[in-house]
UniProtKB/TrEMBL annotation:
Bilayer-spanning residue ranges: 7-28, 34-52, 144-165, 177-200
Record bears the keyword Transmembrane: yes
Highest taxon in the source lineage: Bacteria
Key words, A-Z: Cell membrane, Membrane, Transmembrane, Transmembrane helix, Transport
Organism whose genome encodes this protein: Halanaerobium saccharolyticum
Subcellular location: Cell membrane
Name this polypeptide is given: Chemotaxis protein MotA
Chief site of localization: membrane
PROSITE patterns per record: MOTA
Family per record: Belongs to the MotA family.
Length: 269
């Protein structure tokens, strides 16, 4: 589970609840009319913007945003270096069994292409094409939440205008003005709250995870091409370490110095 996302959602709920409670009357912040306008309007706008097939992925997108399943770059690099060592000792065909046991479909496909003797340029084109379509799917997924983040405040304002119209239609009853104005403002509050606490942060979360996954797959492409070219495993490691940040490199070096084994990084998680 992604602890930071969960803590952020829970912390937001606690903070907003405390503010309402300290105000003395929580009930005034509850309005079914306001919730209907903001949530219903946002949902309607998203349904117009995307296909039903796209919207079916929302539960999966929520799961992805709350989990942290991405492999770390340094782990992938050490796996690729191990493959390079095995290929250098036993040949590329020796990687066929390893490819069949991989959980990462992208890495499995790349190794299988190499084992099958596919031309290096074609291997690169195939994997880069898969990566391009992956990035497009990710962009569409986070775009749903980004769109919700744009629509929620707008429908909050629409709900406020509706409330003001209703309030002004009852000017002959001054007792209704205060409650009517409160409902009108609560609708704007709902829209701003949902956009800035839920929808926009979730879109940013998915963008961050997508960038990380694409980065890891770029490492995989470079590593696979190096293995196919028969490069020395030490050269492969140095080449792939160029993809790591200085902090990640320090972690790798520290693990190697502690254990004396390169593969020890994989057990660090």
């Amino acid at each position: 589970m992604d602890l930071a996302t969960i803590v952020g959602l829970v912390a937001g709920a606690i903070i907003f609840s405390l503010v309402a409670i300290l105000g003395g009357n929580v009930v005034i912040f509850v309005s079914m009319q306001s919730a209907l306008v903001v949530l219903g309007g946002t949902l309607a706008g998203v349904m117009i913007s995307y296909t039903f097939q796209d919207l079916k992925n929302i539960p999966n997108l929520l799961r992805v945003s709350l989990q942290n399943d991405n492999m770390e770059s340094e782990h992938v690099i050490e796996n690729l270096v191990n493959f390079a060592e095995k290929a250098r000792r036993e040949g590329l065909l020796a990687l066929e069994d390893d490819a069949a046991e991989m959980d990462d479909e992208f890495l499995q496909k790349g190794i299988q292409l190499v084992v099958d003797g596919t031309d290096p340029e074609l291997v690169k084109n195939i994997l880069e094409t898969k990566l391009t379509f992956l990035a497009e799917r990710h962009a569409k997924g986070r775009g749903i939440f980004a769109t919700m983040g744009q629509l929620a405040p707008a429908f909050g304002m629409i709900g406020t205008l509706i409330g003001l119209v209703q309030m002004l239609s009852q000017l002959d009853d001054p007792n209704q003005l205060g409650s009517g104005m409160a409902v009108a403002l609560i609708t704007t509050l709902y829209g701003a709250l949902l956009a800035n606490w839920i929808f926009i942060p979730l879109a940013k979360n998915l963008e961050t995870q997508s960038n990380h996954e694409i980065h890891v797959k770029e490492v995989i492409i470079e590593g696979i091409l190096s293995i196919q070219a028969g490069e020395n495993p030490r050269i492969v490691r140095e080449k792939l370490h160029a993809f790591l940040s200085e902090e990640e490199k320090e972690v790798v070096e520290a693990r190697i110095n502690e254990t004396g084994e390169v593969g020890a990084v994989e057990n660090a998680s």
